[in-house]
Amino acid sequence: MGAGTLLAAVATAAVPAVLTRGLHLDGLADTADGLGSGKPAEDALRIMKQSDIGPFGVLTLLFTLLAQVAALAQAYDGSWARGALAAVVS
């Protein structure tokens, strides 16, 4: 469609987030906040159940999404078919 590889990679990483309404990303952030808190298991579970997001969750989401976009951009650099295959497999 004439888009660059970086834009295609961002769009490809955004599609699963939109389709799942961010549920998998929310779970990842909650897990990172609970584990990153360094608190006993009971307190960590309480932190995971809170609706807000903490610094560990933000950092985990940021680096995870950046890694996904970087990997997809590299796959799209090879060829559009390779990028599409990487998106489907992932």
Keyword list:
mainly alpha
Descriptive overview:
The chain has 90 residues and is mainly alpha-helical. The protein has helices at residues 5-19, 23-36, 41-49, 55-78, 80-89. The protein has one domain (5-89).
How helical, in percent, are the residues? over 70%
Beta strand %: under 5%
| Total discrete domains | 1
Name the overall outline.
elongated
User: What is the mean predicted local confidence, pLDDT?
Assistant: 88
Main sheet: strands, sense, barrel: none
Whole-angstrom Rg: 16 Å
**How many helical stretches?**
5
Q: Which blocks of ≥5 consecutive residues have pLDDT under 50?
A: none
H/E element order: HHHHH
N- and C-termini, Cα separation = 22 Å
How does the helix and strand content classify structurally? mainly alpha
The strand count comes to: 0
SSE diagram, text form:
Elements: H1 5-19, H2 23-36, H3 41-49, H4 55-78, H5 80-89
Helix pairs in contact: 1-4, 2-3, 2-4, 4-5
Describe the structure concisely for a colleague.
This protein is mainly α. The chain contains 5 helices and no strands.
